[in-house]
Amino acid sequence: MTAVRVVPLSAGECLNIAALTERGAAWRVRAYPAGFALLLHPARGAVLFDTGYSFRVPALMRRWPGLLYGLVTPVRLRPWQTPLAQLARLGITAQDVRHLIVSHLHADHVGALRDFPAAELHLDAGAYPPLRNLRGLRAVRRAFLPELLPPDFEARSRALTFEPAPPAFAPFETVADVFGDGSVYALPVPGHAPGMIALVVRTRDAAALDGNGLGLTLLASDAAWSVKAARSGEAGHALSNVLFWDAVQGQRSREHLRDWLAAHPRTRVIVSHDAPEPEHDV
Ligand SMILES: [Zn+2]
Question: Would you give the DSSP letter of residue 147?
Fold first, then answer.
């Protein structure tokens, strides 16, 4: 079996009111990392899961209608935090990235998509169509900034192929084997955004999908605001649903993740806007 190394990274931070993301938290502003991940695949090379921000995002937030987005979730980004700068420090160039898996199309996840012109873009077939014709304020209301997509976005997009899930993925009914080698699986977790996906990555050769989770990493994207919430299935504050695509679907996706994690508790959990869990040794 193929094992993949997962390197959690973040490109900038968004500022948000803590009480909106976590029940019982204070009504004050907190900085949340705009997480993405580098997957080092033995055959596919440097693969990205999302990108975090680039300076295109704050630039769009300086003019209407991106201005509104910037008022709701202001962005903090420094030159050494961009994905290109961080990958360069690891000896990886933009051209080296041939595969980029997109969890969903919110601006904090595709902010640097245009920086990777050589990458095939893997995403759920349901992620783009509901947003495709939105412009201006209607797009911003969905946390979507169409200007962030490269001009050849559709030509480079590859729809993930979902198939009936083996019992190890229950309660998920379908799963996509992204590279066809059993190393990276996409799970459907729509709700927060249309067609959102999470990933289960095999980080050890011997990791069993139907075991206790040791040797697996779950990249939950925005299906939960924190690692704790991913494990408990707890939702954010009702107000944070304002930007949600489909709250009922979101609830179902959270329950699926919670139940899958309960069955595989040693899985390492990484969500986009919280510190990543350390790897479990035993
Ligand atoms: Zn999001």
Answer: G
Confidence of residue 280 (pLDDT cuts 50, 70, 90): confident
Going by DSSP bridges, is the β-strand pair 75-76/45-49 parallel, antiparallel, or unpaired?
A: unpaired
pLDDT reported for residue 23: 65
| Distance from residue 202's CA to the centre of ligand 1 (Å) | 24
The residue written with tokens 């509104």 in the block is 68
Q: What is the pLDDT of residue 25?
A: 66
192 Cα: distance to centroid of ligand 1 (angstroms): 6
**Ligand 1 centre from 19 Cα, in Å?**
17
**Could you tell me the domains of the chain?**
5-271 (3.60.15.10)
pTM for the full predicted model:
0.94
Query: CA-CA-CA-CA torsion for 218, 201, 156, 9, nearest 10 degrees?
Result: 60
- How many angstroms does the Cα of residue 217 sit away from the middle of ligand 1? 20
Exposed e or buried b per residue across 150-188, where buried means at least 16 C-beta atoms within 10 angstroms of its C-beta: beebeebbeebebeebeebbeebeebbebbeeebbbbbb
pLDDT digit string (tens) for 71-116? 888 899 999 999 999 999 999 999 999 999 999 999 999 999 999 9
Distance from residue 32's CA to the centre of ligand 1 (Å)? 12
Nearest to 100 by CA among 139, 165, 148, 67: 148
Tell me if 7 sits within 8 A of 38, measured CB to CB: yes
d(CA 226, CA 231): 9
